[in-house]
Amino acid sequence: MSATWGNYLKLTIFGESHGKAIGIVLEGVPPGITLDKDFIHRQLQRRAPGQNKLSTQRQEKDQFEILSGYFKDKTTGTPMTFVIANQDQYSRDYTKQKNIPRPGHGDYPGYVKYHGFNDYRGGGHFSGRLTAPLVLAGAIAQQLLKIRDIHIGSHIKSIYNIQDEQFNKIHIQSEQLESLKDKDFPILKNAQEQKMKEAILEAKNDLDSVGGVIETAMINIPAGLGSPFFDSVESRLAHMLFSIPAVKGVEFGSGFDLSTMKGSQGKDEYRVEEGQIKTLANHNGGILGGITTGMPIIFNTAFKPTPSIGQRQRTIDIEKMENIDLEIIGRHDPCILPRAVPVVEAVGALGLLDLIIEREGRSWMS
Ligand SMILES: Cc1cc2nc3c(=O)[nH]c(=O)nc-3n(C[C@H](O)[C@H](O)[C@H](O)COP(=O)(O)O)c2cc1C
Ligand SMILES: C=C(O[C@@H]1CC(C(=O)O)=C[C@@H](OP(=O)(O)O)[C@H]1O)C(=O)O
């Protein structure tokens, strides 16, 4: 049941990119909560396609409709159903795709798993479009986490070979994380913005694409969430992050860099500061033994370059069992990163809220 996720918060995403609509059923939100619809709308707009020349030219308004679980401006506590209409599909771009899988997309494994009955138009259920309902649910999760002053924010850490600065892994203010959400291109070092945008436009011009890394911080995290081994906080968050199409790597804290450090360089020594237990560094990204330490949770999410590029590629005709060449036409993101930032925040918020409910129940929310 790959479209359903969660233990204490349960969600099911549904729909296809070129079908009538996409959406989500969300269960586990307590009764009596007034949704911050403006915040949800703003997060959806940060992700929406067609906003500028750095993204796909498909135009979607991504307005949402609530079909259930909301009455007199309050949650009822029963399953909530949200629907987002698809409005600007060009399905003719995909006529060829039925038997001719795009290299690097879900077309071929989708054909095999669903015996050729998969909706191949626009990648169908495999499309990055399905991240819109995740952003919607993640905005609700963020609204609830803010009750406890827990904030989540991300920036584009790199695009292709151009790097932004990194978060200070110890001192991060909520204002910094929230103000990143107001930037249309969220990075820390403004001087890199133009270079990153140029890398995207150059790739687009070459009928090519680029990938990159998003860095995320979560602050004011209670110590003691998660479990050792199979329900470690890393596993629970990584499960969500790897659900995002095009994510091919996740690392926590100093991640792979820790493997090249000595113990004396990668240590997180303890101190008591103003009655609070802190670590002097945060190479472990706020998680030890699978359990939160109370330090900020920090992780990096790596996105591959968009697979649908216009350059000629070698592929196959599945029905004819022949090798052929393919030139993909259509409206594709030359880089997924700018639109994926709110998606990473959303799934992070959902994963974290699920862990908090597991340990502390729901009563603090209402
Ligand atoms: C927000 C977002 C937008 C995306 N846009 C495109 C796109 O325009 N063209 C494309 O081929 N892939 C796009 N992708 C990536 C594909 O959906 C993804 O590579 C594909 O489903 C295969 O999944 P995998 O890369 O995780 O193996 C996008 C992904 C996301 C999250
Ligand atoms: C529609 C969205 O992005 C789409 C994600 C996507 C893919 O293959 O993942 C391919 C493109 O679809 P289409 O060919 O129909 O334009 C993108 O536009 C969206 O994010 O809302």
Question: What does this protein structure show overall?
Answer:
It is a single chain. The relative contact order is 0.18. The chain is of the alpha+beta class. The mean pLDDT is 97. Helix 1 (37-47) packs across helix 3 (131-146) and helix 6 (233-241) runs antiparallel to helix 7. A hairpin with a 4-residue loop joins strand 17 and strand 18. The strands form six sheets. It has a five-stranded antiparallel sheet, with helices on one face. The chain has a five-stranded antiparallel sheet with strand order 9-8-10-16-11. The longest helix has 24 residues, at 337-360. It has helices at residues 37-47, 107-113, 131-146, 174-180, 191-205, 233-241, 337-360; strands at residues 4-5, 10-15, 21-27, 64-68, 70-71, 74-75, 80-85, 151-159, 162-163, 212-219, 247-252, 270-273, 276-279, 287-288, 291-292, 297-303, 313-317, 322-326. The protein has a single domain (4-365), classed as Chorismate synthase AroC (Chorismate synthase, AroC fold). Bound molecules: flavin mononucleotide and the ligand C=C(O[C@@H]1CC(C(=O)O)=C[C@@H](OP(=O)(O)O)[C@H]1O)C(=O)O. Ligand EPS binds next to loops.
